[in-house]
Amino acid sequence: MILTERLIRDHTLTRKEYEELLEKAGNQEIRARLAQEAVRLRKLYYGDKVFTRGLIEFSNYCKNNCYYCGIRCGNPNVKRYRLSQEEILDCCENGYGLGFRTFVLQGGEDPFYTDERMAEIVREIKTRYPDCALTLSIGERSYESYRILREAGADRYLLRHETADEAHYRKLHPENMTLDNRKRCLQDLKTLGYQVGAGFMVGSPGQTGAQLAEDLCFLEELQPEMVGIGPFIPHHDTPFAEAEAGSTDLTLFLLSVIRILLPKALLPATTALGTLDPKGREKGLLAGANVVMPNLSPVKNRKQYDLYDNKICTGEEAAECRQCLARRVESVGYRLVEERGDACLS
Ligand code: SAH
Q: Of all protein residues, whose CA lies closest to atom 10 belonging to ligand 1?
């Protein structure tokens, strides 16, 4: 039986088989077959619903120096900002009025946000909006820190593993960061009962098919509720300024494969995908994605959260972004809903 059909039947392949399948990512017919099955599964569990998350990029200070990222600490050209608790709450108020029922607080690893400060923000948001889910995406912290934030009310945590391959991890990160710690964090978050999101960039410098196969095996093992993948896009002030961007087609192919191996997963059609291809997010939805994450950050700071070049949606107000996305979602036959959008359990 050919690999595609085996994956569709068994929802799993070996690492070698994933690698072989990935070699066929350029084959239009195979891509279409995988997308067809991915869409069947997402419709089975989520119908025509697309969930939406209000993304609040609340700090671009970061103590890390990841070689791919525009806001790495080693980039002296970033104008750094931090939102106050008041400003964050204003974003939530605006978002709630627009129909968002999940807020995502994302930032660099900013030591200013101690457990105490962070827990206070989490508690305040959850008190004001008890019907909303709160997601954190603030990088690697200790078990104790994750525990405090979970107790304060955080429901979900996004921490892309970036790459599950040790050698590739070393190419993308400085010495003081380790894949083991990244994995430890994901395990801790699971243990603490967070809905967990892992993920990786597609086409990051030096990435091979074998490494992507490793990422797929890692996802299978971890069984995260959410998986964020998007193409790598170079940023002019990083060591990878001259590197090539990832591919839209390979990202779409992987979205379909991930939908099949984790049928109930929450999969965003990411901003990076929309940046690389003007119809990227629509294509993502047609490949199996079921989440979009429009920006709720204050317009005055949008451009400063500059992870990669030419990032879209940095000029519009949140209301415009939401409307624009609602239209895009409808253009491919789905609808944006006003729900928390938890992972389907049945
Ligand atoms: N500090 C948090 C949030 C990181 S930003 C954390 O460590 O989780 C969110 C994601 O943006 C990263 O996980 C990374 O996968 C992605 N990203 C960073 N630089 C990028 C680039 N140049 N191109 C595409 N995606 C990038």
A: 160
